[in-house]
Amino acid sequence: MAAKRPEPELQEEEWISKSELKREAEQLQKIGNEIVALGKNDLAKVPMDEELEVAVALAQRLKGKNEAHRRQLQFVGKLLRSRDPEPLVAALDKIRNKHNQANQEFHKMEQWRDRLIAEGDDAMQALFAEVPAMAEERQRVRQLIRQAAKEAKASKPPKSSRELFKLIRQYMEE
After folding, report:
1. 2-26 residue pLDDT tens
2. Measured distance CA(144)–CA(160) in Å, rounded
3. What dihedral do alpha carbons 125, 131, 134, 140 form, nearest 10°?
């Protein structure tokens, strides 16, 4: 009679497939690439240890489509595998969100300008309700609206429209 083999003990760690490990490594590689692509101001907002900072700085100096840059990006990805990516991802999300928020504000200012030119006094009253400090420029706003409408009808360059946008931007960013 054959002897019974002892049953292997159940491991507490969950088994992870090789494909899953590769996907995680690729995701960290993308995070590394995004970090390397950041400018100085944004890079300062990302929490990194000294070794990772040095690797990212070198990757930024090696920019281009050459093999050294690719290898350095691979190294940054390798360093990220041994670190907790959550603080890095949170910092990158914050940076991305700031950019998206700036775009939304810019579009809002453009919409106000277009609405002022199209609707006139009604839109102007709504704008002053939203940005009360701008009410002191009432006469200038009214003049720019008239000039912008004339320029649009005559197919001239939108000089007054640009000035109106600058004025809106000045008061909305305060």
Report:
1. 555 555 555 556 888 899 888 988 8
2. 6
3. -40
